[in-house]
Amino acid sequence: MTTPLDWTKLLSTRRRKDGDAVLTPNEKALEARTEHERDHDRILFSTPVRRLQDKTQVFPLERNDSVRTRLTHSHEVANMARSMGTTLAFVHGGALGLPDCVNPLRNVPALLEAVGLAYDLGNPPFGHQGESAIQGWMAKNATPRGENAGSLGIFDGWAPSEAQRQDFLRFEGNAQAFRLLTRLQIVNDEFGLNMTYAFLAALMKYPVPSNETKKGSQARKKFNFFQSEADIVQDVWTRTGLSKGVRHPLTFVMEACDDIAYSVVDVEDAAKKGLINFNVLVAWLKHHAEGDEVTLSVVKKAEERHSEFRGKSLSPRELDDISMQMFRVDAIGWMVNAAVTAFVENKDAILVGEFDKELMAVSKADKLWASLKSFAKQHVYSHRKVLEVELEGHRTIHALMDMFWSAITDRADATDLSSRRPPLSGYVYSLISENYRRVAEGPNNRMPMRYRELQLVTDMISGMSDSFAIALHEDLRRHHA
Description:
It is a single chain. By secondary structure, the protein is mainly alpha-helical. It is built from 22 helices and no strands. It has 3 domains: about 5-125 and about 160-250, Orthogonal Bundle (Hypothetical protein af1432), CATH 1.10.3210.10; about 255-385, putative deoxyguanosinetriphosphate triphosphohydrolase fold; about 385-480, no CATH class. About 60% of the residues lie in helices and about 0% in strands.
């Protein structure tokens, strides 16, 4: 692509359900919000957002209220995204070619805040381990039953396309978020929350199907839509001027905010749990800084404040806590400014769809960001306490998937998902959200029956919170005993 992307299309305020309809004069008089501000409000008040308060960010089933959940993480990402959007629109709008007709001063921050709040909605319980658990269950049961009696043979008797197979073998929370907002959050029609085309385009970090991922490509390393939503994605691309493999420019900003948030706040949470402390982090950064100006500047200021705080009447835990908080403030400040600068410096490549890197990786804060990520990988994510609970989550998800698969497939008529079931299977099937069942059973669902059955399982599992999954597993285990 060599023709620059068109901001008037990229910031489209049209919605799938409304087509080219616009607000009437009376409606305009009553509605002072822009369409992208309405996008944010629709997301904020949606049920999936509330479920995030009981979904894992890093530490599953955490009882310490000060440690982040998916909800607090998403709010922090949304906050940073809005802040970066404000800077880009107010300070760099001219350089970016943002036309006045798209009302960039209000719409760019609002759209970024909405996408930042929504991008994690499809993640299953127990963090990224939940995704791995679903993928593992699919892989284990993909083997034909004739070759392995222990397999459920989920692809037996069906010749799926490669994309249909990979939708499940590589199950993606990102794709589930897109499905959730466009298909599953039913009000009284089949348009989900009926978000704007701009929102749906910016939500897609990986604008490719599951069978066209590519290692080494930032936009293609994962996928962002299932075959069940491929028609919606094509509509979104047509409306916004995008195409397969080409990201919406603001997606890079949202991704940078997520990168910044988890690289800093996951470390802060580990300190709150007593897994690491301020001195361990500072020693690590000094060792890995290798003369990097940004990292050394952040560390120097953090040490100065730590020394200042030591003169106060603080307990060791209070000292460590406040020192980590101030480190987080400075580190995020540096990285946000660096990400904004990187976006502006790479705007030409971004606006012709040829930029395929992470903003943080090409920013002046790249070494600080990389050092924090490597620290978290070694000292946080691999900690025994984290792995123990993740293992329990993995077992819970596999057991639930076995139970729901049995209930979904154990019916009188193989061609009718709503047909009669034995009492136990009927009870378990009834526990699946009515929205999910309505979509799967609906006359407009043109996906193959086995695909619909598998999606009912993944839809149900992905919608669960951590504690709900644990409680439901215990309840169903008693019924199966």
